């Protein structure tokens, strides 16, 4: 342990009284008495009893100095550095996921630029996939590109934290509301918890990220030895496993396929005492299995009712009647440029020919499926040419 001492009074003063109170309660400190400006907390027994005086008014001129006094006692009691404890106090109302990548071709705390960019993008995709699986009425093997407003609103509240010492580390910090019932009517009350109340959406997503990653890990292990390897993934869909989640996990390893570890620390302000959350560590040989599972899930499952917009880049028809076109464009909710194959009825095909000749974009709605290296839009409807002069 590196023993770091805190001297920045501004950083100390930024910690609110409620954050410190929640931290002390979560770590077994007992409130002895309080007045308008301070609260006295103790821990231990007899000769091993420790006491801190917590300031309750952040506008006090010496507020930062008083926080420092508390922090130094905590460092002695917990035998940890002041910096680590201050970080935990800052995260007392946050569920924190840590992704530790272990690149073999970089120094400690470093990773290749392309691998790092992909890891950050995949981390967002992991959070989105878990949030969608919580919000959806029915779990899906392939999630739609367009996500509900509840999911997008949640993602806007999530924060990426600073890296940490050692391996290359990404951290996701999710604010969760403190538990103010079942023994927590006040941050300072000392009562027991008889039951776990219903968890808010934010906590449900935090647990779903962890549970889905664990389920994908178990499915990948099963697939390495089972001839029907995909069955393990389809059985785990109810636990949050999807093609989207598997692709996100693969991306966390970067282009080089680095092994990585996912861990979860729950907010001390909302404890969950009935769960054990050991880290989930993905080996290099897990990643190709996850990638293959994602591809097979996409091939077997249609992404329903998506909207595609783009340019017609290929036309094919034998004689008259219906024909096949290829559109280079994007799916609603996904900015990736993709080539999508579509079978159209005769009237729609004629409009596609016009759009191709006049270099106009088209839009169409249908069910997206993958077959080998190609992506098809089945059951096309509402095909139209986007004519700027008319639209």
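Sequence proposed for the structure above (391 residues):
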């Amino acid at each position: 342990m590196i023993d770091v001492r805190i001297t920045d009074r501004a950083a100390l003063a930024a910690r609110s009284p409620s954050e410190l109170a929640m931290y002390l309660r979560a770590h077994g400190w007992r409130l002895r008495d309080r007045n308008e400006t301070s609260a006295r907390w103790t821990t231990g027994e007899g000769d091993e009893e420790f006491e801190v005086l917590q300031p309750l008014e952040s506008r006090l001129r010496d507020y930062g100095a008083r926080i420092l006094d508390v922090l130094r006692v905590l460092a002695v009691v917990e035998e940890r550095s002041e910096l680590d404890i201050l970080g935990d106090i800052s995260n007392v109302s946050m569920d924190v996921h840590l992704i530790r990548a272990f690149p073999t071709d970089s120094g400690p705390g470093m990773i290749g630029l392309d691998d790092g960019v992909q890891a950050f993008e995949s981390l967002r995709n992991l959070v989105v996939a878990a949030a969608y699986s919580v919000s959806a009425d029915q779990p899906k093997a392939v999630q739609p590109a367009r996500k509900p407003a509840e999911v997008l609103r949640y993602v806007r509240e999530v924060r990426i934290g600073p890296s940490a010492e050692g391996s290359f580390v990404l951290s996701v910090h999710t604010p969760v509301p403190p538990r103010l019932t079942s023994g927590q009517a006040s941050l300072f009350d000392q009562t027991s918890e008889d039951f776990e109340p219903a968890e808010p959406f934010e906590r449900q997503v935090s647990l779903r990220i962890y549970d889905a990653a664990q389920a994908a890990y178990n499915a990948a292990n099963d697939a390495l030895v089972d001839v029907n390897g995909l069955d393990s993934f389809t059985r785990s869909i109810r636990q949050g496993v999807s093609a989207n989640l598997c692709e996100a996990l693969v991306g966390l390893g970067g282009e080089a396929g680095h092994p990585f570890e996912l861990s979860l620390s729950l907010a001390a302000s909302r404890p969950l005492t009935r769960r054990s959350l050991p880290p989930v560590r993905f080996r290099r040989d897990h990643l190709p299995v996850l990638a293959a599972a994602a591809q097979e899930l996409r091939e077997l499952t249609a992404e329903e009712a998506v909207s595609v917009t783009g340019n017609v880049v290929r036309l094919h028809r034998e004689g008259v009647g219906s024909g096949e076109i290829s559109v280079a464009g994007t799916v609603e909710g996904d900015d990736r440029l993709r080539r999508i194959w579509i079978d159209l009825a005769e009237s729609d095909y004629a409009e596609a020919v016009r759009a191709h000749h006049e270099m106009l974009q088209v839009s169409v709605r249908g069910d997206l499926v993958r077959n080998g290296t190609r992506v098809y839009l089945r059951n096309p409807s509402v095909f139209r040419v986007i004519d700027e002069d008319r639209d």
